[in-house]
Every structure is written in C-alpha cells, then in structure tokens.
Design a protein that fits this description.
45% strand; four-stranded antiparallel beta sheet; mainly beta; 1 helix; disordered N terminus
Length: 125
C-alpha cells in the first residue's frame, strides 16, 4: 500500500495485507466477506501514479483518528456501517452507500459494525 495512504491512515502495518496489486483488466472480488470479516485485514488493491484503491476493514469500535489525504477520496461501504467524522459533523455510511471527500479534507472513521469499504484516492485532481 502506498506510503501516502499509510502515513495518513494510522492503521498498524501488521493490519495491512500486502497482496499483489490487480493488473489492468483483472477482476477483483469485492463481495461482502460476511463471517470472514472479523479475521480480515485491510488490503491494497492497486496503486498507480494517479490513484490508489484498497479494501479498508474497520471493525466495530475501531477508530481511525482525524487525518487528511492529499487526493480526492471516495468511500463505498461494502458491508457493515461506519461513522465518518467530518470537519463540522459526522455521517453514518451503511452498506451500499458511497461518499466523496475533497483532497485534504480532515476526516475520521469509527466502526459502528464490523465493516469493509472500498477506498479510492485520486491524485492530481
């Protein structure tokens, strides 16, 4: 996973799975993990000069403190629900919902339920 994402998202290095990145045209299975979610780790999907994608695992009660990322962010909740803290409010993101944040927007995450999300970061936008 990219140093930029790691620096901005205080997830322990041992909690990130270093998988081979997806190749162009390769199908990536993002179906809910269900019963396997409790044992899942955040996993990098792809990294390029222009964007990064990862399956972010946030278990119930887990908090990622306020931080920012230099690129525009998209979060698609695949399963569970999280509280997304914003500069002046918080929203709940549930399975099937998607949200977009501009680059450098300070945000935090807290697992309401065991959750996995597709995180995409666009650089140079």
């Amino acid at each position: 996973m990219a140093d930029c994402w790691r620096a901005a998202h205080p997830v322990a290095r041992e909690d990130i799975v270093a998988l081979q990145h997806a190749k162009p045209g390769e199908i990536v299975d993002l179906r809910p993990l269900g019963g396997q979610l409790k044992d899942a780790k955040t996993a990098a999907i792809v990294k390029s000069e222009h964007f990064e994608a990862a399956r972010l695992v946030v278990l119930a009660g887990t908090e990622i403190p306020p931080h920012k990322v230099p690129g525009n962010i998209m979060l698609h909740c695949l399963e569970g629900s999280i509280s997304l803290g914003l500069a002046d409010s918080a929203i709940t993101l549930r399975a099937g919902e998607w949200v977009y944040l501009t680059g450098d927007a300070i945000h935090s995450l807290k697992g309401i339920e065991d959750s996995s999300l597709l995180l995409t970061i666009l650089f140079g936008t």
